[in-house]
Structure prediction request, 487 residues.
Amino acid sequence: MTNNLNSSAPTLNLKVGLAEMLKGGVIMDVVNADQARIAEDSGAVAVMALERVPSDIRKEGGVARMSDPRLVEDIMAVVDIPVMAKCRIGHFAEAQILQAIGVDYIDESEVLTPADDRYHINKHNFQVPFVCGATNLGEALRRIGEGAALLRTKGEPGTGDIVEGVKHMRTIINEIRRLTILSEEQLMTEAKELGAPYELVLRVAREGKLPVPNFAAGGIATPADAALMMQLGAETVFVGSGIFKSENPAQFAKAIVKATAQFRDPQALLDASRGLGSAMRGLSARNIDASDLMAPRGW
Amino acid sequence: MKHGLRVGVLALQGAVDPHKAHLEALGCEFVDVRTRAVLEKADFHGLILPGGESSTMLRLLNVFEMKQALVDYANSHPVWGICAGSILMAKHVENPEQESFGFIDLDVRRNAYGRQLDSFTCELAGMREAAFIRAPQFTRVGPGVKVLAEHGGEPVWVEEGRHMATSFHPELAWERPSPVHQAFLNKL
Prediction:
């Protein structure tokens, strides 16, 4: 399996290569073919095919599982951009099914109910690339060690509240910066404390960045939210409930695409934000019972 | 290698950063081309249309009203399109049909090799691993178009006049600069 992180004769990682192509873009959650078309026409770089967006999963409760393959296939049939789909944390059989469908990326996602309370999927075993969520650097590096080709913040999915996404992005960036100023003899202890593979800690300390792209997800509901996450260091944004739970999905989708492309230009952000109608109603992440939080799922 | 050459990379979306290392190795300055003003000013000697999603880039070129500036730039400067960028440069695009600029007399079929599971690398034109990622195929090249590299009997690197297109990703190559970046520099 391709693993260029610690091999002495590296081979090019096509999994990371596809993530490079998605940079500077917006990946949108869609639940049917119509939404997928709207997303593509609005300029999405990829869609995430799922049965229910996170805010509905939160509302309806129960066990959230991989989507029906037919739904994923229907969406793959109508768009020409990459299609991603979610499996439960640790549920490698769901991942095998998604790979058999031929999806372009698998999200081992805390939005679904975890299937294994101890182990994540060994993602090196798959030819399809994986994206995983993280709340801090140790978690990010553990996922990369398991073979994830792309990281994203977890945020608190389905809330439309950006506070947790901001916290996770700032935490990861700060912890990366910290590694770059430590002396080499400190790095083994640091690896122990982060609970992260030593080789990856060395690499991050040397390069000052993660070895795979780092995107933002969880709570992004407006063009300004997208620009905030991009300015904090995200390289692309995932928007879950934020688009199709807004008053005018097509307009929101286009506006978030525009804001993400020009995230440093306040005038472009103003143009993108004006007259959009209401964003998704949202739910303050502070008011959620600890047992209903999604970000702490996974380890 | 002091030659003062600057190379722009269209930075609306896609694999922009990976070009930096190649351009630095060639002694070129990297210019981030994100706005119409920067494109109109044309203060760089050549422009790269990077890999990414062609439908997204096309939409953003429309939204930010940059299409005319891109056409004007290409009328007087070299442009190199990679994967999604090559789709923008083609004369005709299929699977599905899509607007394009026709900088090169070339027909392109999007995602012709299949999905991500069909992405691959191969040894090509002096690169140990040339990456084809959900790559398009050049299905017709005009009589004035020169084929610079083929894979499986199909053209994958072409040039016409000052312009160039590749269906694969030299910016991801281990060789820095990649032979394709070197060839582009020679056109400036």
Observations:
- The radius of gyration of chain B is 15 Å.
